[in-house]
Amino acid sequence: QGYEGLVEGGDNIKQANWLSVSNIIQLGGTVIGSARCKAFTTRAGRLRAARNLVEHGITNLCVIGGDGSLTGADIFRSEWAGLLEELVKDGQISEEVARENCRLNIVGLVGSIDNDFCGTDMTIGTDSALHRIMEVIDAITTTAQSHQRTFVLEVMGRHCGYLALVSGLASGADWLFIPESPPEDGWEDLMCERLGE
To answer: Where does the Phosphofructokinase domain start and stop, copy by copy (predicted)?
Structure first.
């Protein structure tokens, strides 16, 4: 469950093997879970996470996520030595254990369907999201045509219109709204005129 699993520990931290990842490639989303973790935004939460990692001898993390996850990873990395010192001071771990786990190595992978990270061709999740959007559009297009109706489809993307733009191009959408290019005044009349055609 992401950082929630690090903070809570227990059964959330377990060794993966080949059976753990067998027959999951076709699944959407994440089979290991994901959660926003308020506790991890606090030093006390990160201290618990550090304790749980040290308990399992884990000093390498692969963090897949967006801005919040990767920012959290950077903070965790920068605090690591101080967190271990605090655990030693509180008697939760020995100085020897702290020495053995003195480095925290982190690999950050951008997991965002928005495809809005500089320096990447396509972020993890974007391709899957586009496929899902196109499946939905393919499914409703015949209904729209047979009923001679206009359909409005909203896709995710928050401040990034990549999914809307690419799926709009792929489906031949008649009108498109994206945050990077807000509509000009009078767009309502122009859109009605277009749809009327």
So the answer is: 1-184
Rounded Cα distance between 136 and 134, Å, is 5
Q: Which of 142, 164, 161, 139 is nearest to 153 (CA)?
A: 164
Taking a C-beta distance cutoff of 8 angstroms, is the pair 59, 105 a contact? yes
Do 38 and 103 reside in the same domain of the chain?
yes
Residue 3 has, within 13 A of its CA and on its CB side, a CA count of 25
Is 106 in a helix, a strand, or coil?
Answer: strand
Domain that holds residue 7: 2-110
Which amino acid appears at position 116 of this protein?
A: D
Q: Each residue of 73-113: pLDDT tens digit?
A: 999 999 999 999 999 999 999 999 999 999 999 999 998 88
CA dihedral 118, 46, 53, 20 (to 10 degrees): -50
Q: Are 49 and 6 in contact (CB under 8 A)?
A: yes
Domain end call among 110, 137, 168: 110
pTM: 0.76
Assess whether 87 and 145 both reside in one domain.
Answer: no
Last residue of a domain, one of 85, 110, 135: 110
Would you name the residues annotated as active-site residues? 114
Are 91 and 8 in the same domain? yes
